[in-house]
Amino acid sequence: MATSIHETVLVGICDGAIDKKKNTSYCTNKIGDRPDLLPIISLQCPICSLCQRGLSHVVQVYCPLATSPYHRTINVFACTNPQCSGKSESWIVLRSQCLDDDIKGRQDNKTKTCRESAMSRTDWCDEADDWGMDEEEQENVAESGERVRNDSVSEETDVSSKLQGLSIDGGLDQQSALQPPHAHVFQSFYISVMEETDLDGFHDTDHENELLREYEEREGVMVGEIRSCGSGEAHEEYEKATVKHGDEVFTGFMKKISLCPEQVLRYSWAGSPLFITEQPFNVSEMVPFCGHCGSPRVFEFQLMPALVSLLCSAGTNSDTPLEFGTVLVYTCRNSCWKSGSTVPVEEFIFVQPDPDQKLFK
């Protein structure tokens, strides 16, 4: 499905391993490790509906909506059992929310709220030293202010200014209950975020063109080069050809991510997903309405193939059998939340296998 020119797409990129000595919080965007729960949330380890094994934490995304007063975190879990690989039923996505008052009511001398001051995309990508502050620095961080309320009809998220990676005590006793001993704990990495439109010039186009040439040789298709123009915009010139594996959707997917093939996440609340294989003909009917308020669900973000190579067990060099093409996450359009709730809301997740997983190894 093509992305509308009016949609804002945020791209998540791996931004380095997380030091084990650094604590993370519910407002840290990260790969792996254990989830960091909002202060009022309680959660036992999610279980695979296919094999009944405990699920491993894959990613955590802090994504408050500009029109909402809630802190909002989404956690994605998956089963690493090879027999469950690539099946949507072996994945779970959970949405958690709470208000500033809920956090302040549970603060103590070891707990700090997330800083809400706006941060430019340049700070995200080029000045990433704020990741994992030490304790002395944390004490200088101001408490969260009230979220901006936007009366506009636009429901665009405020991710680029609100995603932060400051430390917080997540509660180790509670955390240990989230990951049973037999479940994989993936090595943890920070996720840095920038707008897709800002990718031009962010990467070395010579390097990207080399990757594209290698892809052309493998697949027997002419993709063309990424060419920088005087206006600062990059234009892609494509020539139609028959792909060896006959999957034009996959070829289009590769073209779309060619400016940043290492992206691990694409975020576009109420936007259009980027399918890696032919989308189901009844995709609109496939996504169920919210089971709590009955509202339609909208696309929010997807996990990308480059994430697969980062999902290795912490403390080992061995890969896990978790493989996928792309993982699509749909959430309640109203982001409904019952006051006083302590249990995350399960949303809808759809997994598409990769037609050529070896390209990302």
From TrEMBL:
Programmed cell death protein 2 C-terminal domain residues: 247-352
GO CC annotations, alphabetized: cytoplasm
One GO BP annotation of this record: apoptotic process
Q: Which InterPro entries match?
A: PDCD2-like_regulator, PDCD2_C
User: According to the UniProt record, where is the region Disordered?
Assistant: 134-161
Name assigned to this protein:
Programmed cell death protein 2 C-terminal domain-containing protein
Species of origin reads Phoxinus phoxinus (Eurasian minnow)
